Amino acid sequence: MSIFGSKNDFRLITKMNRALLRDIIEQEIAFHKLSVNETQANIYGESLEKTFYDPIIMQCIITRGDQQYTVDDFGPDVSRELNFAFLRDDFVDLGLVPEVGDIIMLSESYYEIDTVVENEYWFGKDPGYNLDRSGEHGKSISIRCSAHLTRVEKLNITEFRP
Predict the structure, then answer these.
(1) What are the domain boundaries of the chain?
(2) For every residue of 23-64, which 3-state class applies, written as one string?
(3) Distance (Å, rounded) from C-alpha 130 to C-alpha 126?
(4) At 87, which helix (H) or strand (E)?
């Protein structure tokens, strides 16, 4: 049993991280969860029009990739990848699970999630792998999502502005 790394230590660090994200960093995104039940799929499990739930405002740390331009027969096109790092407990409190295909809106641009990574653990201890079977073991800290810029025309989430 280690001296540090208790539940109280984890709660303190989580509280400090939330204060850091909300009061100092202040990077907000709108998270659009894909509604699988309302999205009509074809026989291949694909859908041309997806349906999303109303957006939820969340705080995160954003790592921006460079914009890349390509030119083809249809003209110039821009692409960009971004990485979003969230506190896992924020998703737990909201009852959400981020998945591939969900949409993140940032600065009136929409990014479709490509990968979801959850492998950062409190004191490096994976809560699903406990050899000594002694009480509380580890805790998942964060969820990181990689996303690419997508066209708003492909989405069914544009807001009407008079």
Answers:
(1) 7-154
(2) HHHCCEEEEECECCCCCCCCCCCCCCCCCECCCEEEECEEEE
(3) 7
(4) strand 81-87
- Return the structure tokens found at 160: 């009407």
Above pLDDT 70, what percent of the chain? 87
Q: For the whole model, what pTM was predicted?
A: 0.82
CA 43/CA 41 separation, integer angstroms: 7
Per-residue pLDDT band at 162 (split at 50, 70, 90): very low
Question: What are the respective helix, strand and coil percentages of the chain, to the nearest 5?
Answer: 20, 35, 45
| φ, ψ of residue 95 in degrees (nearest 5) | 75, 30
End-to-end C-alpha distance for the chain, whole angstroms: 61
